[in-house]
Design a protein that fits this description.
single chain; about 350 residues; Rossmann fold; Dihydrodipicolinate Reductase, domain 2; nine-stranded mixed beta sheet; six-stranded parallel beta sheet
Length: about 350
């Protein structure tokens, strides 16, 4: 049995699971509670009310307002870091110095590339697993989409468009990680500030273009979350069209066929999805199960610290390009003075 603790009892730490419309476990606390190999023994938050609600909901025996005290007393195997990204490095340092064996850290990994690098190095030196919560990597549905695309069952990829809301570092972190997961590393980016605001002045919406190292081009488009929520990817290949919808819970698929309007043309026709979306969609639970597997088998996480840094690098590159009125930014970046603030 692995002993787990959480720093940060807010939305992703515990509160998302208070929403009656959510039909799957959506928090770190809920995921630990659902996995038999893990016991959630401690939680920490500066806010006494959040801490008390979390403790009561998940029957957590030990509650703290100082994570240093928690780490010093609880002999934890796993620590979830669910706080502002500017705190991630300090908490990671304290965790590895107190014998934690695995860290499950919220995205973005850190507030700067320098801090992300330090987190990765600290964990590497101490043999600690660092897993970043880019949750779709742990979902069988998204894994099957990746295989479908990489096996060229959609043909040669012609264009990819991604729609997101709520800030280039907030939802954008998941977006960039998913794009890398499906299509590989990115060669360069160009970006401008979006006319559709994120309503967080520290985390603007940014539109742009990315070119993957394999030659694929992608378009990034932000929308205003006050009007609707969207997190969708539209992918056009030579054999069809694949559109991931409803925050990754559904998929629309189109096959190429002879046009019914013009003799000389081919068209796209809506057809049955080749990928079954009617599978358990417990992203967070699967993430914790994967972390347990990494601990028991000595494996590296599917969503590693390096993957977290790569997503952060793209966030920084979009900022660099937008600040320079769309200047092309080549990757990889050795460093960036950009500091990322995200909730």
């Amino acid at each position: 049995m692995f002993r787990a603790g959480i720093v940060g009892c807010g939305r992703i730490g515990s509160q998302f699971d208070d929403d009656p419309k959510r039909k799957v476990v959506s928090t770190h606390a809920g995921a630990y509670f659902a996995v038999n190999e893990v016991e959630l023994v401690a939680a920490c938050d500066l806010d006494e009310e959040k801490l008390a609600r979390c403790g009561q909901k998940w029957q957590i025996p030990s509650l703290y307002q100082d994570y240093r005290e928690m780490l010093g007393k609880e002999n934890l195997d796993i620590l979830s870091i669910c706080t502002w990204n500017s705190t991630h490095l300090d908490i990671t340092r304290e965790a590895v110095n107190n014998g934690v064996r695995a860290i499950f850290c919220e995205k973005p990994i850190a507030d700067s590339l320098k801090s992300a690098g330090e987190m990765i190095n600290l964990c590497h030196e101490k043999g600690v697993i660092l897993q970043i919560d880019h949750k779709r990597r742990f979902d069988r549905f998204h894994q099957e989409i990746k295989s479908f695309l990489q096996d060229e069952r959609l043909g040669r990829i012609q264009q990819v468009t991604f729609y997101y809301v709520s800030g280039i570092a907030n939802a954008g972190s998941h977006m960039f990680d998913l794009l890398r997961f499906f299509f590989g590393d990115i060669d360069w980016v160009q970006a401008i500030y979006s006319q559709n605001e994120s309503h967080n002045p520290d985390d603007p919406n940014i539109d742009g273009m990315v070119k993957f190292k394999n030659g694929i081009f992608g378009s990034i488009q932000a929308c205003d979350v006050r009007d609707f929520y969207i997190f969708e990817m539209d992918c056009l290949g030579t054999k069809g069209r694949l559109n991931i919808t409803r925050d990754g819970f559904d998929l629309d698929f189109y096959e190429v066929g002879q046009s019914k309007l013009f003799s000389e043309d081919m068209d796209l026709f809506h057809s049955a999805s080749p990928i079954n979306s009617d599978v358990p969609r417990e992203f967070m639970v699967e993430a914790v199960r994967h972390l347990v597997e990494c601990l028991t088998k000595g494996k590296k996480s599917l969503s590693s610290g390096e993957d977290g840094r790569a997503a952060l690098e793209l966030i920084c590159a979009f900022h660099e390009s937008a600040r320079a009125d769309g200047k092309r930014i080549n990757l990889p970046m050795k460093d960036s003075k950009i500091e990322i603030k995200s909730r």
